[in-house]
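Troubleshooting log. The previous structure file for this entry was overwritten by mistake, so regenerating from the original sequence record. Sequence copied from the archived sheet and checked twice against the printout by T.R.
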Amino acid sequence: MSRERRQGMVEADHPRLSITRQCQVLGLARSTWYHRPQGEKAVNLDLMRLIDAQFLETPFYGSRQMQRHLKNQGLLVGRTRVRRLMRKMGLMAIYQKPRTSVPHPEHRIYPYLLRGLRIDHPDQVWCADITYVPMKRGFLYLAAIMGWYSRAVLSWRLSNTMDAAFCVDALEEAMNRYGVPGIFNTDQGSQFTGLEFTQTLKEAGASISMDGKGRWMDNVFIERLWRSVKWECIYLRELENGSQARQALDDWFRFYNEQRPHTVCDGRRPMEVYRDGQRASKAA
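Regenerated output below.
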């Protein structure tokens, strides 16, 4: 069970157990429950929004190039600061790096299973990814589950941390609503390589596929989704808080699935393609 979930189980007004005892039972440090992270300053939130918008255009920019871009915009920001903000947003430049560390033994990297595979029916392949969502006074992380065949968004979740729990919640909701995919593809982010996420897939009977390190093209469909959701939803609004972000995204994903024509689907709507494909599969 993730730390976030365990923290949520602590009851401040429990009738019999003190907070200290509850933390002991749940395997939490007492200081962990009391800690309240400090939010970013307004100037950093503005920088993060600019960095995020530029990264959509140039995903090969690392902190050095991003610092130069900001300088060209008249913003003198140190590279260390840019690097810290990019890490907080989960942004990593797309290029091959030497392997300088060995993954944790519980975080197995699975092979990429989609090369040369013909994807011709719903639930054959699903994928997932995480992106950064800016708000006026903070930011959130957005995880989405997408079907490759139809490009339909099957579930999504917002979180204020990069913990794996909200990714697992999105995965469980998608499987409860639509069944189990044959293959589930992600990048090598720790939320997806961790035991909590991979075990959920294994127990459901799905095969696990992971992109090559630094190969964003292996999961290109959901990368294109992020471009659409940001330019068509997030950047058109000044989101005040999580409630507004959740409502805006709920409206947009409903529009995307049920109304927005998709070029790759010959102008049809993603959920229309998904349902038609399911009916065809059952008829066959």
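DSSP finds twelve helices and five strands in the chain. Archived copy saved in two places this time.
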